[in-house]
Amino acid sequence: MKPLRMIIVAVGGQGNLLASKVLGEAALIEGVEVRMSEIHGMAQRGGVVESAIIFGDASSSIISDGEADILLGFEPAETLRAIGRCSANTRVITNTATLPPFTVAIGKGNYPEVNEIKQILKEKTAGLVAIDAMALARKAGSPMSVNIVLLGALIQTGALGFSKENVKEAIKRRIKPALVEMNLKAFDLGFEAAAAGTV
Amino acid sequence: MHKLLKDSPGEKIMLLGNEAIARGAVEAGVAFATTYPGTPSSEVSLNLFQMSRESDLYFEYSTNEKVALEVAAAAANSGLRTFCMMKHVGLNVAADPLMTLAYIGVTAGMVILTADDPAMFSSQNEQDNRYYAKFGHFPMFEPSCVAEAKDMIKAAFELSETLKQPVILRTTTRINHSNAFVTFGDIKARQTKGRFERDPMRCVTVPAVARELHVKLLARMDKAAGISESSEFNFITGQGVWGVVANGVSYHYALDAVKDLGIESKVKILRPGFSNPLPKNKIKDFLAGCEKVLVIEEGEPFMEEAVKAFAQEAGLAIPILGKTDMLFTPLGEFHPAMVREKIATFFGIDYTPAPKIDTSDVPEIANRPPNLCSGCSHRATFYAIKKAAQGMDVIHPSDIGCYTLGFMPPLSIGDFVVCMGGSVSTSCGFSKATDQKVVSVVGDSTFFHSGITGLVNAVFNRHNFTLVILENGITAMTGHQPHPGVDMDLMGMPGYGRVDIENLVKSLGVEHVSVIKPFKVKNSIETLKEAMAFDGVSVVIAKEPCILWAKSIKLKKPRAFEVTDKCKDHKDCINEIACPSFYIEAGRVKIDADTCVGCALCAQICPENAIRPLKK
Ligand SMILES: Cc1ncc(C[n+]2csc(CCOP(=O)(O)OP(=O)(O)O)c2C)c(N)n1
Ligand code: SF4
Ligand code: SF4
């Protein structure tokens, strides 16, 4: 398979490392080569966590600026901050539920309007899917399933070319049995929201 | 059963680089493992720690890297396969035993992992530890990917046993923290009890012995050089008259670049994976067929200098470049596009990078710097120090751990941070060299690691400062590992001893020792003031568990606070302690009940008494 490069950005605690592991497992089921790299230095202390996942026929395990084919953002401002990782051909999937940095929360730093964020992402890349993954995660049963909601949306776009069934199988293999059902629901909700073009 | 203990050869499993290294050690029959934690190496030791609890593998968190290496050296000289792992700067701490252990060698396989951190994702410098291999005369392996890391550690144990010499495995963060599929191999049986055979002419390094040992060491390294020539880890891919020499992750960036640029028929790549001693003859042969050669390596020009020297010996005058203004830098880490562009530049290939997105009109987004957790005890201690030292001209030497973050406003405790343990000894220097007040902070794990010797120095030389030991009962920063002051029963692991910091400090002869509970704010400030008024060395021990850890072992149950109507909007809470649970809504301060742990620090500093436990 021609290399496909994907960046996931999130705030520490949002579960992006688990999301990457599920995609890695899905790649195994799909029979696609995969390499991933993660930076999780200060995740627990509220920093940004980034993973790079490279599917297919390439050797490197990190992605240079401007070379991501897919950008999956778990937090809208972090998605926008990572725009330098994209080119005009990048597909972007983002959560719209915000987690403002502390300076913003106390009224000091700047945090762009979510609509403005969406506008910029849409204009500068090859397409945007924006969903309120937090609301859907709550609906599925836990705010912790934001990561899987977003995987549902990602798979719906077809950008990755993985089948829904295989990713669901990967969820079953990688997630604790007690949480599988809730996460499968989260996956479906994300998938449907992306299909409906929910913004 | 721990997933890395499974005896299922052929199973394909997704592993983190550090898990692959731990698995490789297990497959190699490692029996004895020691470490002091440090990113990016920490998951190697964490997995071995977990496995030691369900097998006969011996593992210990040692007090520091020097101790870890010495403990390991004894095991490896008692016939046990031994693994000692640390982050790059840890090897500085272990450098003293390292340099002479090279002379003594080992009787069973010993591998030393140094996890380097180009770009300093979580380190205080980006030193290139390949030089330790050369400096100390150790064979060295450097993997380029996760799966190879597992194969290499096995080969490293074999080589170490062949040569009777410890072998260094050198990784970088992008190997340690990458995931890839790895195939399990057979697990070699562990030999867990050894015997030390007395051999003073090898093991007692008095000068007369050491002189002989140095000769033998060089002979061992000659043998290593021969093995390096035919090592499968030193291979050449492709063919052509343009040469590339690339190690570690750079090798993969180069492979991709050559393909992307469509110059596969012109370029051959030499990948030294057994990189000390380098395979001199293989490199000379490689150079002989090249018109020009590009050396691609993160960090210092370790290979480049060697390759140039080999070319000189071979009488070759071809251009060989690596670190120059136009090409590569010793700074930071490399990435695929950078390597592609430099290869194109060096070999004169037409290459236009893909157009970049114009980001000039992207609005500013506030940064998201790491912060001490909500309810972190360090925040309360720093607040109290600040209040106690108000109005004084004071220097706050600090140290390495979560508490380093205290240097940021509004707490601003942290003026000089150099290396672990440095807070205590630099306090000695500052207090003699200036008339400023010195109040320093050190974490408990760091104090055990290398703070104690500085304190002994302070007592002996009669220095004048206050040292605050932040006893949060765990090594928090690197992922909550044990240390000698930890109550292991709390972790459900009986059978360990425990060193009490207060008794230890008193026994060292510190005359003014006090203990504070940092969440008792007024008392803490008073106690700190007394300690600071003492003429001589005083120690204040701030005792309160790391809340993130305490929550995870269910030692503490969070109970959120709220800001009531009594709030008159002074915003002292936000401006003085900046707990990340605060936010502002419609101009009013609020507390996020999901993250507030109810430490009550803010409640005690609110002048209106407006912050109260949330009524359910
Ligand atoms: C020589 C060396 N070894 C290891 C590390 C990695 N490291 C950074 S901070 C730290 C320990 C911090 O623990 P502690 O002093 O208890 O402070 P806490 O994080 O709990 O606040 C370690 C092991 C390092 N920086 N230098
Ligand atoms: S992990 Fe523990 S010591 Fe570190 S910032 Fe959080 S509460 Fe503080
Ligand atoms: S009680 Fe106050 S200082 Fe403590 S965690 Fe809650 S909001 Fe933060």
Automatic annotation (TrEMBL), chain A:
Oxidoreductase among keywords: yes
Coiled-coil segments: none
Alphabetized Pfam families for the sequence: POR
SUPFAM superfamilies tied to this protein: Pyruvate-ferredoxin oxidoreductase, PFOR, domain III
Segments forming domain Pyruvate/ketoisovalerate oxidoreductase catalytic: 12-192
Biological source species: Desulfobacter latus
Record-given protein name: Indolepyruvate oxidoreductase subunit beta
Keywords (A to Z) from UniProt: Oxidoreductase, Pyruvate
Gene Ontology terms for molecular function: oxidoreductase activity, acting on the aldehyde or oxo group of donors
From TrEMBL, chain B:
Protein origin, superkingdom: Bacteria
Catalyses which reaction(s): indole-3-pyruvate + 2 oxidized [2Fe-2S]-[ferredoxin] + CoA = (indol-3-yl)acetyl-CoA + 2 reduced [2Fe-2S]-[ferredoxin] + CO2 + H(+)
Enzyme class, UniProt record, top EC level: oxidoreductase
Any one biological process term the GO annotation gives: small molecule metabolic process
Domain 4Fe-4S ferredoxin-type: 587-616
EC number: 1.2.7.8
Cofactors, names only: [4Fe-4S] cluster
A molecular function GO annotation: indolepyruvate ferredoxin oxidoreductase activity
NCBIfam families per UniProt: IOR_alpha
PANTHER family: 2-HYDROXYACYL-COA LYASE, INDOLEPYRUVATE OXIDOREDUCTASE SUBUNIT IORA
Protein name according to UniProt: Indolepyruvate oxidoreductase subunit IorA
Gene that encodes the chain: iorA
